[in-house]
């Protein structure tokens, strides 16, 4: 087995020194959040981060990167297929008001006719490293390659955050390893700047719109703790093209201050909008009244390029993930057998809960073995899934009713475990057993059947204490991390 090079047994004085320097480095280099409470003008705090990078087999990162362009193409084509979406989501639409409202907007826009055929998609594909024999990374070494598999957790079509902020993490971890006196080769901590590639996609979409005086609109919320991640994308757009103006507005602003011209150009505060990047709108909380839903319909009816369109957001439903795992589903959209294999190799077990024998059987299995499954609603953004006792109770409550069709059941991954120090605001630091999620970013621009741009952008690693089910960064559960590549 390969030797683990990471510094896990530091003297207290050395650990304190590295920790204080790392915190200052993070504040200076922008790996930060805005505090959620109190007066926050000009104030930032360290985002949660791992003090050192976490070990990832080199082939695992390569596998995640190699399949991203395939997934970009697959999800774009799925979003274009109205009949597939209709059939796949029909049971969900019946019982989930949020998905039904999105579907109604899609149908209204489709019936009226698209004002803008071009769409920009910014995806984040989240994976875990599944271990098949319960082994974990220790100071003595890592499991053999045959004991590890890359498995998809979810693909985000709208809640694809952290592409801006994660770019500094690899430089942070080179610094902390140097402070700890640990030798490594440069390729073990690869450069990673997904935000720059995402910004290139945004600039290309803006150019395709064809009006040099039009703006890019970030659709967000007023009190955004992760605002710096979004600002970094704005700044990278400016870095690439200084003539592009970026503005920020909310769905409520759109309702009260925006309108469509006769040819359906989107105008807000006297600005014509070329591209809208939605950083809000992925949960029912985003739509507290009909005003916000009216604003979303106005946006979808407009000529502005959307990232994502409402149909692309619908393609990110967990039900779509489950249906695509069925035999022949991926092959409908991807003809290259090698690409199909790259996609399918990452699929974990997926089970539908539609009314009928198949759904009944899935409910029974989950109630009997609640630690083997995860119950997932049709949401992005984290904090929505049910596990263990809570999942069992929910299924016992709804398992014989159509309400269960709002969910899918997924195999619970037993992830690769190792040890690291997680630095979180207000909490003591300690060497802890941790597990990670590895995400890859993709950008796709398409117009009908034409593929204009299809890129893999980089990666995101999030690490949390072992035994923690959810993994949100903004919620402070997970910490920003970097893959430390090893050959096994």
UniProtKB/TrEMBL annotation:
Name this polypeptide is given: Glutathione synthetase
InterPro entries linked to this entry: Glutathione_synthase, Glutathione_synthase_a-hlx, Glutathione_synthase_C_euk, Glutathione_synthase_N_euk, GSH-S_sub-bd_sf, GSH_synth_subst-bd, PreATP-grasp_dom_sf
Organism encoding this protein: Batillaria attramentaria
Binding site for ATP: 318, 376-385, 387, 410-413, 437, 464, 470
Classification via Gene3D superfamilies: 3.30.1490.50, 3.30.1490.80, ATP-grasp fold, B domain, Glutathione synthase, substrate-binding domain superfamily, eukaryotic, Glutathione Synthetase, Chain A, domain 3
Known function: Catalyzes the production of glutathione from gamma-glutamylcysteine and glycine in an ATP-dependent manner. Glutathione (gamma-glutamylcysteinylglycine, GSH) is the most abundant intracellular thiol in living aerobic cells and is required for numerous processes including the protection of cells against oxidative damage, amino acid transport, the detoxification of foreign compounds, the maintenance of protein sulfhydryl groups in a reduced state and acts as a cofactor for a number of enzymes. Participates in ophthalmate biosynthesis in hepatocytes.
Keywords attached to this entry: ATP-binding, Glutathione biosynthesis, Ligase, Magnesium, Metal-binding, Nucleotide-binding
Details of cofactor binding: Binds 1 Mg(2+) ion per subunit.
Family stated for the protein in its record: Belongs to the eukaryotic GSH synthase family.
Listed GO MF terms: ATP binding; glutathione binding; glutathione synthase activity; magnesium ion binding
Lineage: Eukaryota, Metazoa, Spiralia, Lophotrochozoa, Mollusca
